[in-house]
Amino acid sequence: MEVLELLRRKGRSSAETIATDLGITPNAVRQHLTNLERDGFVVSQPEKSGRGRPALLFALTERADSVFPKRYGQLATMVLQEVQEMGGPEALDEVFARVAARHAAAIETDIEGLDFDEKLRRVVAWIGRAGTLAEQSETAEGVKVTIHNCPFRNTALKFPQVCTITPQLISRLVGTAVSQSDSIHRHDPYCSFVVQRPPVDR
Question: What is the mean pLDDT of the chain?
Answer without folding.
Answer: 90
